[in-house]
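ok so heres the complex, two chains, lmk if somethin looks off
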Amino acid sequence: MKENANPYKPEIVTIEDTWQETYGDRAIKTFKVVLDDEEARENWSHRPGQCAMIGVLGVGESMISISCSPTEGKFLRFSVMRAGKVTQALHELEPGDKMTVRGPYGNSFPVDEWKGKNILTIGGGIGQAPLRPIIEYVKANRADYKNLSLIYGARTSADLCFKSEFEALNDRDDINYHLSIDIEEEGWPHYVGFVPSLLMEVNPSPENTIAITCGPPVMINFVLQNLKQLNFTDEQIYTTLENRMKCGIGKCGRCNVAHLYVCKDGPVFSYATLKSIPEAFA
Amino acid sequence: MERMKIGKEKFGDFLTALDKQLYAPQKVGETLRFVPVTPENKLDLEFSNTTVPPKSVLFPQVETLYQYELGKTDLNLPDGGEERVLVGVRPCDARAMAIVDNLFSWDIDDPYYLAKREKTTVIGLACSEPGMNCFCTSVGGGPASTEGLDLLLTDLGEVFLLQSLTEKGKRLCQEAEGTLEQATEEEVTSAEKLHQEAAGKIVRNIDTGGISEKLPELWDSSLWQDVSEACLGCGTCTFLCPTCHCFDIQDEAEGLEGRRCRVWDSCMFSEYTLHASGHNPRPTRRERTRNRVNHKYSYFVTKFERTACVGCGRCINLCPVNIDILNILAEVIKEAI
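and the predicted structre for the whole thing:
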């Protein structure tokens, strides 16, 4: 069997850095990794919105969004919530440790089509991870896009990811952001409430704007309703589906929504496409 | 098409002359399945159909993707495997291979399946006594259908009539030339008659025309609740379906030896679609049954322009609670009118 023809064979990567984003039962940890094989590292290319199968030998693999933009450098970032066997093993890894990575998989956010438009991201919890590459991509190509607005919320301030990156935006006048937490906390300067309500508070104009939302299914459902109320068209709204996946190449079956495979035809879908698939909002 | 024949007493010599690893139906415990032929186990082609379809040879229930030593990062890939001959494949199961080929070769090739497929020659055996739940003729097949086969045998009593269908089949005949004879006109005619008679013995029929368009219209129908009420979620219908191809990827480790392998999985299991968050897009057997039927008769048709069912009847014969896919399809047809 020709090695380079084997889509199941992963690259070995070395963890360069980790950040503990959140703590608790469902802690989130971010990994910055570099492919060991020099040729593979040079040849690697991904687009915002794609995902990769990351794993620990002896434990297994999980499909995780690539949470960095290719404009950031020759490395990959993954923000992983501890939720099962594989993610538990990943959380035990530290800088210098090895992981397996194969991919990138799936389609991507149509960032070229979005040139000249306002970009609005609406994230909840770990759902900010697939949105981060868009933000970084727009930052790296700032002149190509108009306003960049970020709405992001989590249950408590301790559950917010990428906090220092949001704080760093205070120094920039070309990006505005709005944070929310569900329950009042002392000293919290931002919004208290759910993300869909914060969206109504921010009241973005649909004029020449693309809205991208990722988060828990219940949040997405209300965000979609509210975006419609704000007169966004179905074609202006994008989200990602995060179905369970195993192969990443449209063979193993499980990620299907009707005749589409999320690993091939997704994970990025416009609301217009999703509305035509009966199973999409299951 | 060249028509040859071979005396049954010489069939063993024919196979031996091929000098390839033979797989044929053998009883393993309670099940009949395709396993390697060894000098100890006798070739027996007196069977209706195997319990486990021959997909188990091309797409094993557990298959190593690569091996590794824990703590190290070298990944050892298996080689492409040996030249094989499958003997006694029923025409429905051979059609299933042709159907599954679509899946394993669309967009990105699956090297494990395709390497085995390439190195496998398939000798079919026409059916003369279809089973009570066979319905191949309703889904485009027949008791002597040749799609997916390299050679087709028809049992004429003392001899097998042997049709070579592909280059692979032709090569096989050349390798074992000494054991073959030219078939007579009468033998060819009587084989054709047998095929026709066999088709006439199929008692279960359904008009599947338009079903792929009807299914999406019935998405919210109560029929899915009704037809899945008895389901135990055992997964037999999918594990033993010759066109079902879903798999999981799992790591196994013992001591320092580890491997990443793929194992059959089933859309009838709740964990199949369970998200890490606990959310499940197909939370009950209603959604899972709906997916199984839609996948076979609608989604696969949309994607590959053919039905992912060959009418072998296994899912009907082997369901522990007698769920019958033809009855489900009959409900679909009735409700869509």
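quick notes: The longest strand of chain A covers residues 11-22. thats all i got rn
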